[in-house]
């Protein structure tokens, strides 16, 4: 990152020295120097620091922290999701793999009895802090459909962390997405 600061310093000096000759007060020099820095940062972020592709298989661990339905509190729900990214849009599908209760008891679902989900969403690119991923899920449960919304941030290229809220038991909690290799 030191080389970025060096390049920014050189660009600023170059613009300043050229434009100070035109404008003795330096107003235009400062304006155009700042514009050059902003454009450089924009292209640097787009070319070298752009978000990695989310397409692939993801393991998802949801931990319910609050719920109107008491048996859901502290429940960990494990999902397998397949996500496709097209530009800043994401879509996909997935299925519930298992539940892990607070006492450690695991309930793994047979493939024929797994609840499925449909996924849509988008990536919100941010230039001054971490970009966010918004995902909307429709869950096809045994008794009814429910919906969930995830707000996630990149922790690394293969890990997203954030929160979720769902209509299933009016529950909310934390979520971790881990990309399978």
Strand order of the largest sheet: 1-2-3-5-6-7-8-9
Would you state the CATH class of the largest domain?
Answer: Mainly Beta
Q: Cα-atom Rg, whole angstroms? A: 23 Å
List unreliable stretches of 5+ residues.
none
Q: How would a textbook summarize the main sheet?
A: 8 strands, antiparallel, barrel
Strand-residue fraction? over 45%
Number of domains: 2
Categorize the overall geometry.
elongated
Tally of helical segments = 2
CATH architecture of the largest domain: Beta Barrel
Give average pLDDT, whole number. Answer: 87
Helix percent band? 10-25%
Distance between the termini: 29 Å
- Write out the CATH superfamily name of the largest domain: Quinohemoprotein amine dehydrogenase alpha subunit, domain 2
What is CATH's topology name of the largest domain?
A: Lipocalin
Helix and strand element order: HHEEEEEEEEE
Q: Which class of secondary structure composition applies to the elements?
A: alpha+beta
Count of extended strands: 9
């Amino acid at each position: 990152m030191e080389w970025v600061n060096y390049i920014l310093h050189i660009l600023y000096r170059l613009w300043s020295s050229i434009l100070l000759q035109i404008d003795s007060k330096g107003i235009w020099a400062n304006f155009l120097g700042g514009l050059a820095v902003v454009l450089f940062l924009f292209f640097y972020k787009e070319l070298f620091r752009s978000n990695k592709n989310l397409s692939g298989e993801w393991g998802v661990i949801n931990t319910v922290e609050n719920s109107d339905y008491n048996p859901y509190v502290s429940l960990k729900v494990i999902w397998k999701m397949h996500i496709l990214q097209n530009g800043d849009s994401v879509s996909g599908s997935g299925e519930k793999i298992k539940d892990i209760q607070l006492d450690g008891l695991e309930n793994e679902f047979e493939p024929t009895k797994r609840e499925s989900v449909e996924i849509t969403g988008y990536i919100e690119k941010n230039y001054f802090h971490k970009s966010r991923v918004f995902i909307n899920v429709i869950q096809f449960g045994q008794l009814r459909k429910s919906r969930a919304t995830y707000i996630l941030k990149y922790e690394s290229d293969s890990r997203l962390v954030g929160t979720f809220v769902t209509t299933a038991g009016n529950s909310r909690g934390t979520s971790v997405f881990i990309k399978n290799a």
